[in-house]
């Protein structure tokens, strides 16, 4: 018993002595930086500046970031640290980073990574080895990653993309993108590195996936062993510490040996990384590789390409799911570029995606896969601007994550903002503040390949799916504390839109019919108006027209949300649809809802039979005789306009406001029999409600498009497109006016009176009368004011045309008041009006709905019943084939000779055929006086009177406030967005 106690005392004495010696040695070691007058952060015993491996709370990457942040707070440009007792030199200032990685690279050639070639030959790879051995191997391997070699691997990536998309379709709505993308990159690297089909996307228990994941699965014991081996590499090799476990090493060694044996035995070659290593393995007078070295290089290429790329894609999708506006902007770019490449993902197309580069750059900034890199000083180095010497063998730490999250370089660093990497911001920033792949000669050799597979994977997913964050996913993410790679702890679940497959099937409609199309964007289809940088709604169909025209097509298919729409380009097809075969296209396809919005059921929107019955009865309203009766009312309104302008001579006038008030007065008088007098009372209820009709914001515009593409659902949901206060106002005005006239036996020569007379024979309800009055108000008011505004804007810019028009007006009037007949004789005025309507058609898109299946002439393409057909009036009117130099304002395009020589159905400001605008300009069929008189319909008459009255009495000119016309992005009319300022001077 005594002997045993004596042994325990001696053992305890030895342990205590060893602890005392160890602590003394560590404390002495912790004086290293202070003895060299290099600033340092205070260490603790025994771990130095490391966290305790037994209670780690941060990943090693974030721990080093925290150390960097502390050094920055202390104002240090560099400082010393300790990993256990081993001194480590931390770079803080960007100039110091530049010196170590680039300028003084010859002092820091080695990474200083632990490897054990004897016990663990697979660890002696390009990333770890140093000196001339690294230099020679790097030189030999660099040609693998030229653009030419990457191009040869691109088809392999596309094959893997197909497998990924197939797997996505089988997944549930909620997916762990981290796991799925890990399998995707495993397949790519397995094919490009080993020439093998790993099949991990379809089989998650594939050996490649199992062993690939195992490499990055670390226990605390393994983390402690690797940290000790990295701090004391000689001791680590002496103890036989392995970086890679034997089962992983055996698996990859067998794969490589079997592949080499098969290729050499069968004289088989393949354009991949493995083949390059096999070629290097063969006898060469300059350099040869052993089989172990081939295995090691294949292994590191596999690991680097699989984990870093999948991690980057995972974090990128996570941020895009959180920032849907960025996701939509990126998707918009993807579809725009794919459109130029026939909808295919190509090497060149991916290279064109600038915003995709910005998104990935920002993801790599916020989540660099390798959060820090190391260098080892290979010969004594005089630290610049100090008298300190960094000794040979000292490890140097480059804190990538710390620099990337530094507020000095990246304000609000936790915010995901791809615009940090636009060209302007990149030029303004120090290039060494962004180093996700390192910098200098030892930058990541596979960087370009990794980025390529990352981009291809993101493009393939975003073109088909929308991602949102799943509640299972932590926010903010918690990073794994057991990995040297920056990776999330647990999965990252995102939600893919449940209707994705439905959308995909919808977007195959035109392709299945063999009709050319423009690649749609989920979920808007081709209606990118609602995306950032979207088109003005009114000009959207012009974009379609121009794209199909440039491709030499006569028609093409597009999608508005999910609904297929046909766009006509060739005038002969346009003629067929709106005129010759009108019986198959008798409806406009404009939404109406009798239950919830009675004003929407009008002559413009009605289905065929209701429209036909009402149109026949209303046509008599716009005979020359009826219009003659209204002529004096319009002239009286123009006199009010002249009196108002006389009070504003020499001032900068918003001519759009002037034209709007004139049009309100005319329509109020001729349609409702109401004296609006908007020049004296611009805030009166009638002018105010008239403007409210055309107040479109993004929500109201979306409702209009949704209701047109899903009319039944919209009626079920009670969707209305007219504002509720507008509906109440017009119904009240009509009811009060009708009641007053009928009660007092009053009749007037206006449109409302015609509807009242029809009511007696057709049983029209008050709501039906209000709806027809409403549509004539909207059609006559806004289109007239827009046309007058555009005409005066162009005449102000072209004073010689204005003078020519004024001379004609004065000549035809002969010093007298303007008459109906003199207005009809103003030929140049008609040309000015027609050229204005060419360049600025108020309704830029004409729609028709197919009412029965119809085969396009000369093709086997069947337009199915219910399909919406678009005719881009604006596209046709600005087509240089029909109107050379289309942006030029030139009324001579519409002299008699030019009109005769121009192809029919290329001038359609008010449509054509049976459903052309009832109240506006009818085409002159011949030149007899009687026909000319009949041709001056109501809308043309009030527009001509408005233009002629102003030009006769005033000289309009541009002023410093005159700006180019911009169009309202949410209006379906070609409506000016900005004020149109002109100056008016009295003509003597």
TrEMBL record:
Task: Recite the UniProt keywords alphabetically.
Answer: Endoplasmic reticulum, Heme, Iron, Membrane, Metal-binding, Microsome, Monooxygenase, Oxidoreductase, Transmembrane, Transmembrane helix
An example molecular function term from Gene Ontology annotations? oxidoreductase activity, acting on paired donors, with incorporation or reduction of molecular oxygen
Q: Which residues form a coiled coil?
A: none
Q: Which Pfam families match?
A: p450
List locations, semicolon-separated.
Endoplasmic reticulum membrane; Microsome membrane
**InterPro entries with a match to the protein in the record:** Cyt_P450, Cyt_P450_CS, Cyt_P450_E_grp-I, Cyt_P450_sf, Insect_CytP450_Detox
List the transmembrane segments. Answer: 6-26
- Membrane topology term: Peripheral membrane protein
Positions binding heme in this chain are 444
Entry GO CC: endoplasmic reticulum membrane
Major localization listed first in the record, in broad terms = endoplasmic reticulum
- Report the cofactors: heme
* Family of this protein: Belongs to the cytochrome P450 family.
Please state what the protein is called.
Cytochrome P450 monooxygenase
Organism listed in the record: Tenebrio molitor (Yellow mealworm beetle)
